[in-house]
Design brief:
Blueprint lengths: L11 E2 L8 E2 L4 H8 L6 E5 L10 H5 L5 E2 L2 E5 L7 H15 L8 E6 L5 H14 L3 E7 L2 H10 L4 E5 L8 E7 L8 H11 L16 E3 L3 H10 L12 E5 L8 H8 L3 E5 L18 H9 L4 E5 L6 E4 L5 E2 L1 H15 L6 E5 L4 H9 L3 E5 L3 H11 L4 E2 L5 E2 L9 H13 L5 H4 L8 E7 L10 H14 L3 E7 L5 E8 L2 H19 L1
Parallel strand pairs: 3-17, 6-7, 6-8, 7-10, 11-12, 11-13, 16-17, 16-18
Antiparallel strand pairs: 1-2, 2-3, 4-5, 5-9, 8-9, 13-14, 14-15, 18-19, 20-22, 21-22
Helix pairs in contact: 3-4, 3-6, 7-8, 10-13, 15-16
């Protein structure tokens, strides 16, 4: 079965009664099942608009200028991450979220530890206060902390300043609605349109300007919220845990949560200096984590990324446990306890075929979405699913959070560990992954390599070669100038050949 996902415009309307608005990249049997009104075993779904319940056709065809798959992101002090553009974003977002009543409008802002956060935070504050919104500044706080505090403090809007797993040179801005969920495509495009308009009408009168204040208890509040997701009858007192905070937003809260739940904690990546976020540490580089686990004979290792919305773990032998295995562990536990709603899990097209086969063996369905944790979340909300995530380590549990939360996901795994005397290396190997390879090709300029005839031909040829024995996913990154090529196949040689053919075609098209 060959799969390809070539951008947001490659969706087609569902003709059946499956309750899903758009589908892309479905194999023929799944499409047939959907058109007849039956529920396919696997679905690759494009969620509907969070605000209206519909997905407007004009959104599908619009070109984004600022927003990508996870907010706005780029190199600091280079468009779109400049003070001027960021301030306009603040004013436009304030205009979008201000309600008609006479209450004081409020926005909460958190950030990670990048040097450029000191530039972006005041620019956003200037935009919001100029538009009459009060600003509450949290300082360093994980992305899921900002999401939950947006709802907890009844703010109109939440903002996280972070480029997640990227190096310090980059930064980004993620927006959350008053319900704590990331914005829909429609909302982001409307805000983009407002950013291009004159701001005179947005500016507040001198006596209606917003105020800004920094609060000191945001981290403590988040610590208690995370601890509350761990079963009260359990403790981590018999576990030695290495936690790598990536010198990022969780450098204070993550060790504190684990310590207060009883664990012996060995912290790594807890000395941010503005430049070392994600540098040879965290979920994107687990060498230090694996080495520390073996050196200190720890029971488990936990690695977060720069904004702590994703997690990668390792067992006592230093073997990596990716997001797919984490999803399988939690799904197995929750299904046995009757906690897994609709006996389904949501994941993206990048999740391994082995996960799908394992879930099927325990009578759990797998719904696939396009890449991006917010698309996973939207699908979960529409279909009443309470567990979903990405292979990269975004794990979303809507019983506890509105977005991916690395700490909460780790605690759910630890809850499983405390129920057994079996080493994590045996518990965590839930399924055998199908051979999979992902390769990124960087490109420059505005020309889209995926539109090159040679690339389209290569994709078609590889899909024919794979047939029913594998999958191919080719897509543009929403956060970096990269083409991502992923192939799965029953045989290593076929998988490697599939990736090599498409990568070679993409590289030729970029030269």
């Amino acid at each position: 079965m060959g799969w390809k996902l070539l951008g947001r415009a490659s969706f087609r309307a569902c003709k059946g009664g499956c309750g899903v608005n758009m589908h892309s990249g479905l194999n023929s049997s799944a499409v047939k099942a959907c058109e007849t009104g039956a529920k396919p075993a696997i679905s690759l779904c494009r969620p509907a608009c969070r605000h209206t319940g519909r997905r407007s056709d004009w959104v599908k065809n619009m070109t984004r200028k600022y927003f990508g798959t996870d907010g706005i992101r780029g190199q600091a002090n280079t468009a779109p991450i400049t003070p001027e553009i960021v301030m306009r974003l603040g004013m436009a977002a304030a205009r979008y979220f201000r309600r008609s009543d006479d209450h004081r409008h409020k926005v909460v802002i958190g950030k990670d530890t990048r040097l450029s956060g000191y530039m972006i935070e005041p620019a956003l504050t200037a935009g919001f206060t100029a538009a009459g919104m009060d600003v509450i500044l949290f300082g360093p706080l994980p992305t899921p902390g900002v999401a939950v505090m947006t709802r907890s403090l009844r703010a109109d809007l939440g903002v996280m300043i972070s480029a997640s797993h990227n190096a310090y040179q980059d930064n980004g801005i993620k927006l959350f609605g008053p319900d704590g969920y990331k914005l829909s495509d429609e909302a982001e495009l409307e805000i983009e349109g407002m950013m291009e308009q004159p701001m005179d009408a947005v500016l507040a009168a001198p006596n209606e300007l917003g105020r800004a204040e920094r609060v000191d208890d945001a981290q403590s509040r988040y610590v208690e919220i995370v601890k509350a997701t761990f079963p009260r009858r359990k403790t981590l007192s018999n576990l030695r845990i290495v936690v790598d905070c990536a010198n990022g937003a969780a450098y204070k809260v993550a060790p504190k949560v684990l310590y207060e739940l009883g664990a012996e904690v060995i912290p790594l990546g807890v000395s941010p200096n503005g430049f070392n976020i994600n540098e040879e540490c965290g979920s994107t580089d687990t060498r230090a984590l694996r080495e520390a686990v073996q050196t200190y004979r720890a029971d488990i290792g936990i690695a977060l990324d720069g904004d702590a919305d994703r997690v990668v773990m390792c067992d006592e032998k230093g073997q990596i446990i990716d997001g797919d295995q984490v999803l399988a562990m939690i799904a197995r536990s929750w299904q046995a306890e009757g906690r897994l709603s609709r006996s389904s899990v949501a994941a993206t097209v990048m999740s391994n075929l082995g996960l799908e086969k394992y879930l099927r063996s325990i009578d759990v369905g797998l719904d696939r979405t396009q890449v991006g944790d917010r698309y996973v979340v939207q699908h979960m909300r529409e279909h009443g699913i309470n567990l979903g995530g990405e292979q990269s380590g975004h794990v979303v549990m809507t019983d506890f959070a509105t977005t991916g939360d690395g700490l909460v996901a780790a605690l759910q795994v630890l809850s499983v560990v405390t129920d057994s005397d079996i080493p994590l290396s045996e518990i965590a190997h839930v399924f055998d992954p199908v051979p999979q390879k992902l390769e990124n090709v960087r490109y420059e300029g505005s020309k889209d390599p995926l539109k090159a005839k040679t690339v389209m031909t290569a994709i078609k040829d590889v899909e024919a070669m794979l047939g029913e024995k594998g999958r191919l996913v080719v897509r543009k990154s929403g956060t970096e100038p990269l083409i991502r090529v992923m192939a799965e196949a029953e045989e290593d040689a076929m998988m490697l050949e599939a990736v090599a053919q498409v990568v070679a075609a993409v590289k030729d098209a970029t030269n």
